[in-house]
Amino acid sequence: MRQIGILTSGGDASGMNAAIRAVVRAAASVGIRSWGIRNGFDGLMRGDFQRLGPRSVAHILQRGGTILGTTRAPAIETEEGRARAAEQVAATNLDGLVIIGGEGTLRAGQMLYEEHGCRIAAIPATIDNDIAATDTCIGFDTAVNAAVEAMDRIRDTAESSGRVFFVEVMGRTRGLIALYAGLSGGADAIVIPEEHEDMGHLCRRLISAHRGGKRSLLVVVAEGDRAGGAFSVAEQVQQRLNGRLQVDYRVTVLGHLQRGGVPTAADRILGTVLGAAAVECLNDGLDHHMVSEVGNTPVFTPINEVLAVTKELPADLMHLLHTVGQA
Ligand code: F6P
Question: Of 12, 42, 48, 128, which one is the catalytic site residue?
Answer without folding.
Answer: 128
